[in-house]
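Q: What would this complex look like in 3D?
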Amino acid sequence: MCGIVGYVGPKKAAPILLDGLRRLEYRGYDSAGLAVHDGREIEVVRAAGKLENLANALEQRPLCGSTGLGHTRWATHGRPSEQNAHPHAAGDVAVVHNGIIENYLELKHELQASGVRFASDTDTEIVAHLIHRALEQGAPNLFGAMRQALGRLRGAYALAAISRREPDRLVIAKNASPLVVGVGEGETLCGSDIPALLGSTRNMLFLEDGEMAELTASGVRIETVEGKPVERAPRRIDWSAVQAEKGGYKHFMLKEIFEQPRAVEDTLRGRINLDEGDVVEAELGLDAQAARSIERVVLVACGTSHHAALVGRYWIEQLARVAAHTELASEVRYRDPVFGPKDLVVAVSQSGETADTLAAVKAAREGGARVLAIANVLDSAIPRASHGSLYTHAGPEIGVASTKCFTTQLVALLLLAVHLGRRRGALDAERGREILQALLELPNELRWTLARKADIHQVARHWHNAPHMLFLGRGLGYPIALEGALKLKEISYSHAEGYAAGEMKHGPIALIDENMPVVVVMPRDRQYEKTLSNLQEVRARDGQVIAVVTEGDAEAKKLAQWVLELPKMPELTQPVAAVVPLQLLAYYIADLKGTDVDQPRNLAKTVTVE
Ligand code: AGP
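A: Here is my prediction, written as structure tokens for the whole assembly.
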């Protein structure tokens, strides 16, 4: 998500840090900053917006010194602003961070009770204060103070810190967010990603979870958080700058498909209370009284986000027992829609800026509805125009075709359904716990599915020249079929249709012959038998079936020509995994056709026009 660069050595740090941040610019960010030790003090310069703004600020206030930290921020806690930009300072310490501190509120209250005043709304500032407090209370040095602070943190972090008292070193630590160390000639660097370091060195080593390190000009010393020394030699990274940006994947879209387990973990982080079988979500602002007064939920969205909304509708009806509808924002805004104070309108948008969805939000507010945004970009227009928000933590998505934002939207919608169900008394703690447990298992189920990429590639090789493809699904599988078809259209330019399997006999069955590949989404669920009948109807007309099934489905294997497997998993969370083979199928077909996967023709990542 955020970008980190650190430098210690003989050269002026600021230009190296700025160069490192520029190399991370492709990932997107909302603010940036540097902290440099000038030999006496730590000076911090930060700016909201583009790196150009930071560069201009540095011209006004040049930073001298050869030890420092740089950061580009992708906001997760606290709106994008100069005040929330990193580095964050407390006493003698400055810190940059990538990740999410789960227990930040608890720690913030504790620190506030002991008199600490916060200058930002971020979770990161807490870490700076914890390190500072440890130093005040006698920690021997920055390394020891960082170790003490880590003992208090829960969550994901790549951290880098400098201290006024130790001008010649950086201290870094990692848990669940990447951190790379670059070992140069008489200089040492760290970064959140390989590209950040390529301007200085290609000799790199990777910190593992639960490790921390001290970086000086002469090298790196690694220990586990428990204090056990770790020996690790750097290795040479031969990636080009472009390869490094994509993490070695051929396209950003492929990288983002494989990032989904992590994106789901981050979206769940800190939001699950298993003891209570409930969702911890302060940002939603929906107490029991507000939740009980809702008579209708209307989900508004466009494109892929609309497909997520269609899945969300099933979950909300089933778990919260309230009528739920979906609306294409691009349609509802041009009707004369009727919204009222008993409506909860949920606007789903990865960018948070889609003009049609924003207009639907405004119409809902004018009608007196309560509006909740599900978005990936903090403080974007749609959350700003809403009463409450539930952010997905997918991190920046660069591929125009949405993948990890879709799966994290699904996760956010299921969290919302549980939250509503619990507040409305429609869902007991036991069932809530079961669903939350199912959500926690999702990252591994996604990994399982991704590991079967070779099967999917084989189907793509066979069918990449097919001019048409039909996607069928029922129940929760129907929106997934729609999404599979949209992905294929968007990036491969092949014609694809998504249909509710039960609608086959009402028209599309006329298309079926031996040249028509039909993808049938049919994991083991309550609709299984019926979808199996649809599969048989397709086979009876010589249609070619690619079935997305639960592992070990012998029946489907007998009937379908190709089978793409999902792990055995609870029915409710199946759609999150079921979309993955379809994303990969679209990707491999597009790649085999040689289209511009990351920037498909005629499409924009953020659609701010009508
Ligand atoms: C997704 O692959 C598409 N690029 C597109 O359908 C997108 O989902 C739609 O434009 C809505 O965007 P939003 O989620 O940013 O509101």
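A: To summarize the key features: Residues 226 and 479 are 47 Å apart (CA to CA). The radius of gyration is 25 Å.
Q: Very helpful, thank you.
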